[in-house]
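Ticket #4471: structure output looks truncated?

Reporter: J.K.
Steps to reproduce: submitted the chain below (394 residues) through the standard prediction queue, then opened the result file.
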Amino acid sequence: MADKRDYYEVLGVAKDATADQIKSAYRKLAMKYHPDRNPDNPEAKEKFTEISEAYEVLSNPEKRQAYDQFGHQGVNFGPGGFNFGRDFSHFQDVDLNDILNSFLNGMGGGFSGFSGWGGSRQRRVDPNAPRRGDDMTFRLDVEFDEAVFGSERTIDLQLPTECDECHGTGSSDGKRTTCKTCRGSGVEVGGSGFFQIRQTCHTCGGEGSVIEKPCRKCHGTGRVAKAQHISLKIPAGVDTGSRLRLAGKGAGGVRGGEPGDLYVLLQVGESDIFERDGLNLYVDIPVSPVDAALGCTVDVPTPDGTAEIKLPEGTPNGKVMRLRGQGMAGLRGSMRGDLIARIVFEVPVNLDKKAKAALETFQKHAQSGNFPEKDRFKQRTTVFFKHKEKLQKK
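Returned output as attached by the reporter:
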């Protein structure tokens, strides 16, 4: 999951894109990378699979909400992953006229059916219109135990907020004037005829307007840095790469615009006891060879508490036991993983004279059948060297 690209980035849309914007972006990309149009291009097939998966999530309100809150980990396509075959249903809904219209409008032209060309229109931007704040990303290190049990944290950070002196206009007199270079569009158009080049206006930086008298406090930006104390609930089951979305906690908007969102990217630390693989937890249980030989009861730590497991006589070193449903909790109430415990013999150290004497007495009374693995190893070694002698005589 960590290797996947952000779904919004895949479709080339903003995180606050509307359903129509997401659908339009998908149609354009689906037309370009559809396998039927690129039969000998495996890279195009991979691209189509990627954009189809992104659309599958972002076009579904529930899946999109889960993705916005938890990232890729919050979207589960099941054991087989994303089903490429099922996504052709999206492409069947594509209207060729809509795709060509979307494509040509971006180049300054228009298209109406298959009969002729429409005129170009230039979108004008209101220089004093409210503008939504930017989405912000904050990386947070959390302890392994927090990922197991969940926790609540408070994070302190500096975020851009609307300047209270100019009220987000960036202007000391509260006025912005339409940019003369781009005439309010925020873009400059070059070239002529069918092919045109559009780029961000170099004068206004894409704002569509300029400030003649910048605010002294914010220096014309409309925002100033302000300390924020934000409470955050970390749900049980998160992992490194999990992303939590805090709506309206990002950068402040300007000119009365709503604030952006804050995305908290989690980095989970290592455990002193467990190793984690997805939702499964692994733990080594140190056991005395004597206890393993005679049989005993061992305590196995789990997220729910200590589980007692009875070991039979002659339990071998490295024996693995699985406790189903005793691992990590899944996000959003999904099924839990397992806990896998492995028996590891601990050789005694710092023995006194009596303990050593007792071991020596045991060694004298031990029979060959008490150590079958040792006997088998010795037999295999003997066969190996006999084979060596036979080969060297040739």
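Triage note (M.O.): checked the attachment and the full token line is present. Residues 77-123 have pLDDT under 50 and may be disordered.
Status: closed, working as intended.
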